[in-house]
Amino acid sequence: MAVVKWLAVVLVVGALGAGGWYAWQHYQDEGLAEGFGSGNGRIEATEVDVATRLAERLAEILVDEGDMVSAGQVVAHMDTSELLAQLRQAQAELRREQEGVRYAKAIIKQRKSELEYARNTFSRSKQLSSKGNISIDQLDQDRTLLATAEAALQAANIQAVEAEASIEAAKAAVDRIQSNIDDSVLSSPIDGRVLYRLAEPGEVLAAGGRVVTVLDLTDVYMSIFLPTAQAGRITVGGEARIILDAIPDYVIPAQVSFVDPQAQFTPREVETRTEREKLMFRVKVKIDPSLLSDYIERVKTGIPGEAYVRLDPQAAWPDTLKVGRRP
User: Fold this and answer.
1) Opening angle at CA 119, ends 115 and 123, nearest 5
2) Single pTM value for the model
3) Residue 67's closest CA among 301, 299, 300, 297?
C-alpha cells in the first residue's frame, strides 16, 4: 500500500512581506532580461510511503536507505503465519461446502425417485378406487404420499441452492484471506530511491503502518516565489530553466507545473495596491522527466539553486539560460 505525500518545502527566500519584494528588486538589479522571472529554491521530489494494509508483524526488510528500487520490487515481507492458518481453515470449509452440494444433489435424486413412485402409486389407486377395489382411505393415503413427495423434492431443491450459495461464500472467504496474504508482500509502486527505513523486523505495525519511504526521482521540482506582477503572467506548462549551485555551469530544462492560487508573505486582508504588489505566489518548476530517467541514480534532493521562468512566450532565452553547458 502505497500513501503519497509531499516532501516538506525548504526554500531559500528573503524575509516575509517586504523581504520578498526586496528579492524581486534584487533580481531586477541583476539585469535579468525582460520577459523572465526567477527565484531561489531547493530541489524537491515526491515521497511515497510503502505501508502495510493490515495490523501485522514485520518479518523482514529487503532494502536499506539509499538503495535504488524499481516499480514492483519487493521491499519487505509481513508475518503471514496467522493468515496462512486462516487460509487452511477457509479451504477446509470450502471443501465441506462442496461435499454439501454433492449431498444435496443426491438427495434431490432420491426425492425425484420417491416422487415418481408416489405418482405411480396414486395413479393406480385412482384406477382401483374407481372400480371399488380399494377403500377411499387408501386412496387418501396415497394422495398424501404424493403431496409429501412433491414437498420433499421442493425442499431438497432449496437445500441445494443454499449449499451452492455456501460454496460462493466459502470461496469469497478464501479469496479474501489470499488477498491479505498477497498484500503482506510489500512492493515499491515506483522507480526511485529508498529515503527512509521506518521500521525494523519484529515490530508489530498497525494498519497503515509505514515500512519504508521511497523518493520518486521521476517527479523532481523546485518551488520558488514570485510577485503578483510575474505570477499573473506565468503559463502552466511554460518553459523554465534551473541552475543548481552544485553544477552552476549547466542549465537544466524544466517547465512550470503549478502556480499557487493563494498568495503568501502578506496579511490576509490586503487593502491597497502597494500592498497587493508585494504578494508572493508559490510556483512549482518541474524538471523534464525524460532527462531525469537518464541520470536517475545521480538525482538528489535538497540541493539549492535558482529557477527561471519565461513570462513572455515570445521572449528568446538569453545565451546564459540556454539548455546545456553555459558559455
Assistant:
1) 170
2) 0.66
3) 297
Quote the DSSP letter at residue 275. Answer: H
Tell me the C-alpha distance between 36 and 30, whole Å: 12
For residue range 221-271, what is the model confidence (pLDDT) as tens digits? 999 998 888 888 888 888 899 999 888 888 999 999 998 887 776 544 444
Instruction: Tell me if 194 sits within 8 A of 64, measured CB to CB.
Output: yes
User: pLDDT by residue (tens digit) across 93-107?
Assistant: 999 999 999 999 999
Which residue intervals of 184-288 are DSSP H helices?
228-231, 273-276
Report which of 102, 100, 51 is spatially closest to residue 78, judged by C-alpha positions: 51
What gap in Å lies between CA 267 and CA 318, rounded to an integer?
36
8 Å CB contact between 254 and 288? yes
Residue 184 in contact with residue 77, Cβ under 8 Å? yes
Q: Are 283 and 260 in contact (CB under 8 A)?
A: yes
Q: What are the C-alpha distances in Å from 228 to residues 76, 266, 313?
A: 47, 12, 18
Query: Residue holding cell 435424486?
Result: 109
Burial category of 323 from C-beta neighbours within 10 Å (exposed 0-12, middle 13-18, buried 19 and up): middle
Mean predicted confidence (pLDDT) in 202-221: 93
247-252's contacts with Cβ under 8 Å and 24+ in sequence apart are 248/326, 249/325, 249/326, 250/324, 250/325, 250/326, 251/320, 251/321, 251/322, 251/323, 251/324, 251/325, 251/326, 252/287, 252/288, 252/291, 252/323
| Amino acid in position 147 | A
Give the three cell numbers for residue 76: 519487505
CA–CA separation, 301 vs 215, rounded Å?
9
Residues 6+ apart with CB under 8 A from 7: 44, 45, 46, 47, 215, 301
* Residues 5, 298, 294, 187, CA torsion sign: negative
Residues sharing a CB contact under 8 Å with residue 53, sequence separation 6 or more, in sequence order: 1, 180, 183, 207, 208
